[in-house]
């Protein structure tokens, strides 16, 4: 049976939060640090709690970045992820990118994946459709179930907690805390690569 790995994009392959944060900080003259980000949708909450009345401006700024080709395609890849994914693909593993980015930025997302060499043979890409799904956790679980994904790689705690399959959770300031048994906290892509065979054996997936 072909092994299938579901892989999130933002903060798993792409250094997204540092990129957004640096733009946001310089635009609004604030100094939010990565370590302060205690929840995945931190900036949404920060903007909502903002007392300076710049809520609309801040929301528009973030939305603008989301659709900004230059910004999006300039986000840096996370070390080792490209080489490891290429290696897996060459071993016959199916790579399936599953992201809560909106379907409206599919093209930009593909451009980024291709630019950095993530678009391996038979790669698949699913993005979030507001008309079809009510939240990102249900969306990712549904795609994983429908495609018989064996293992997921994620940084959002809620999404990892919503999965029944093994999940490698890349350690980030916003996902600290107690985990379910199927979730393995990891600190690098090298660690994921090293632990994958053992986890695959545990779920009976044979390459
Ligand atoms: Mg993510």
Key structural traits:
207 residues; alpha/beta; Rossmann fold; 2 domains; binds magnesium ion; HAD_sf
Write the topology of this structure.
Layout: E1 4-7, H1 16-28, H2 42-49, H3 55-67, H4 69-74, H5 81-90, E2 94-102, H6 106-115, E3 124-128, H7 136-146, E4 151-154, H8 157-161, E5 167-170, E6 183-186, H9 189-203
Parallel strand pairs: 1-2, 1-4, 2-3, 4-5, 5-6
The structure holds magnesium ion.
Protein name: Nucleotidase
Family: Belongs to the 5'(3')-deoxyribonucleotidase family.
GO molecular function: 5'-nucleotidase activity
Decide which structural class fits the backbone: alpha/beta
As a percent range, the share of strand residues is 5-15%
Largest pleated sheet: 6 strands, parallel
Per CATH, the class of the largest domain reads Alpha Beta
The CATH architecture of the largest domain comes to 3-Layer(aba) Sandwich
The percent of residues in helical segments reads 40-55%
Give the structure's gist in a few sentences:
This is Nucleotidase. By secondary structure, this protein is α/β, with parallel strands linked by helices.
Description:
The protein has helices at residues 16-28, 42-49, 55-67, 69-74, 81-90, 106-115, 136-146, 157-161, 189-203, and strands spanning 4-7, 94-102, 124-128, 151-154, 167-170, 183-186. It is an alpha/beta fold. It folds into two domains: 4-14 and 76-203, HAD superfamily/HAD-like (Rossmann fold); 16-74. The chain has a six-stranded parallel β-sheet, with helices on both faces. The chain is globular. Bound molecules: magnesium ion. Magnesium ion binds next to loops. InterPro entries: 5'(3')-deoxyribonucleotidase (IPR010708), 5_3-deoxyribonucleotidase-like (IPR052419), HAD-like_sf (IPR036412), HAD_sf (IPR023214). One of its GO terms (biological process) is deoxyribonucleotide catabolic process. One of its GO terms (molecular function) is 5'-nucleotidase activity. It comes from Candidatus Gottesmanbacteria bacterium RBG_16_37_8. Belongs to the 5'(3')-deoxyribonucleotidase family.
């Amino acid at each position: 049976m072909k092994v299938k790995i579901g892989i999130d994009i933002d903060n798993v392959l792409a250094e997204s939060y540092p990129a957004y944060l640096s733009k946001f900080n310089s635009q609004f003259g604030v100094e939010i640090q990565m370590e302060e980000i205690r929840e995945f949708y931190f900036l949404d909450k920060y903007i909502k709690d903002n007392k300076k009345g710049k809520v609309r401006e801040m929301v528009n700024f973030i939305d603008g970045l989301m659709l900004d080709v230059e910004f999006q395609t300039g986000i840096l890849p996370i070390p080792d992820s490209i080489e490891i994914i290429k290696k897996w693909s060459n071993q016959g593993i199916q790579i399936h990118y599953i992201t809560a980015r909106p379907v409206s930025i599919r093209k930009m997302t593909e451009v980024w994946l291709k630019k950095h060499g993530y678009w391996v043979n038979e790669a698949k890409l699913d993005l979030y459709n507001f008309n079809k799904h009510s939240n990102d956790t249900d969306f990712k679980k549904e795609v994983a179930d429908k495609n018989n994904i064996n293992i997921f790689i994620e940084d959002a705690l809620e999404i990892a907690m919503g999965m029944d399959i093994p999940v490698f959770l890349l350690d980030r300031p916003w996902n600290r805390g107690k985990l379910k048994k199927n979730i393995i906290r990891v600190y690098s892509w090298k660690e994921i690569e090293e632990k994958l065979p053992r986890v695959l054996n545990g779920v009976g997936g044979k390459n």
